[in-house]
Amino acid sequence: xxxxxxxxKPLEPSxxxxxxxxxxxxxxxxxxLVNLQDQQDQSHTESLVQKRNLEEIQxxxxxxxxxxxxxxxxxxxxxxxxLIWSLVKSEHDGEVLLETSDAVRATLITxxxxxxxxxxxxxxxxxxxxxxxxxxxxxxxxxxxxxxPIEEREQLxxxxxxxxxxxxxxxxxxxxxxxxxxxxxxxxxxxxxxEELPDHTDQLFVVDRNEQLKGVLLINRLLVSDPDTIxxxxxxxxxxxxxxxxxxxxxxxxxxxxDLVSASVVDDxxxxxxxxxxxxxxxxxxxxxxNEALNLAGLSEEEDIFAPILKSVKNRWGWLAINLVTAxxxxxxxGLFEDSIEKLVALAALMPIVAGIGGNxxxxxxxxxxxxxxxxxxxxxxxxxxxxxxxxxxxxxxxxWGSIIGAFTFVIYQNAxxxxxxxxxxxxxxxxxxxxxxxxxxxxxxxxRDPALGSSVMITAVTDSGGFFIFLGLATIFxx
Length: 480
Description:
Elements: H1 16-35, H2 39-62, H3 66-74, H4 78-87, H5 93-99, H6 102-110, H7 114-121, H8 126-132, H9 138-147, H10 150-160, H11 167-170, E1 177-178, H12 184-193, E2 203-207, E3 213-218, H13 219-224, H14 231-234, E4 241-242, H15 248-258, E5 262-266, E6 272-277, H16 278-296, H17 309-336, H18 338-343, H19 346-374, H20 383-413, H21 416-446, H22 455-478
Helix pairs in contact: 1-2, 3-5, 7-9, 8-10, 15-16, 17-22, 19-20, 19-21, 19-22, 20-21, 21-22
């Protein structure tokens, strides 16, 4: 029996991207219908329809967090992206630009005028402006500096002076400082006069008259302590101190290890310069993880998925060229054993197995090493033990899986010697993969390069050529 009152309603889009895609499709569909109307009414009707639909999209965008808008922009083709970008409120421009990837940010900045870019920075803190400045045109940067108060101008210069992968680049200047000789009641009154606390304020920094850090007063301690208590009695001197020249990854490790929400940044004399907060650290970790994933594949920079074809080609051609050279080398290795392959055709069918397993094993090792390097777990004293351990793992894997593949080879080709050679080749190629899987990222790190840069491409090239050479060489020596 059918319930006439139980009409099915169309499903509502469940995510911001789906909702925007739905609204854009609706906008384009109605625009197409208008274009089919009589020419005399078309201009007026089209204007009303476009305005009504764009207002609907804009109303929805106004409800979203800047991070959600940035996510939407990255998921849209260029034309749709620019249409949506034109509907974002100007006061949100700066926050959205900060949330987008570098590649997408570049396309948005290209569409903005100088005055729009300067206006976008008006709603940002100094440390946020410092993140945005490297992507701005030089004349815009000068206008931004002129628009800032003197104190913020100096803070911006200081933030821009630190390397991108340093703690100084992550530093936030928005801190609350107090004196150690005042009562907690005074501190509470001071906080109530503020419009709002800086984001992720879990502690107040206790400094002397020279701005030297003496300790921290935890917010939870402030709230539960007697208001007549002196700050010096309630504060703690046990705290994590970072320096602006420290490697940012070390700060990230400290936040993970000690479950920090914020940490102080001081100079060599313990003068408080600013702080690092957990949200900045999370952004850094996410960006670093994304870059490492790209570097493992040989991509030199983050790429807009909807970038023009030529731009994408330029980003990818370098390691593809290297791959072509290594593939040619692998083909020449095979060419050295053409006579052997002609005499025993089974070699052609089996050699990709040796090379493929070696490549996978090498990539597993490299992934482990790159991660360990990022977490500062590898040093000169334990590198040899790590190499020995990885060689041991590969030896066991080679014996186990080499024996299994050797047994299958014997069953298929009824050739015990060929099966034994498959086992030997598997063991040797896995040992080669482990050796280079450790040495490649360590060598890149020693040379001051990113350990992940092209590591996956290099290990695959070596295990391919090495696997072919080992297997075909053993077969030529012992079978032919």
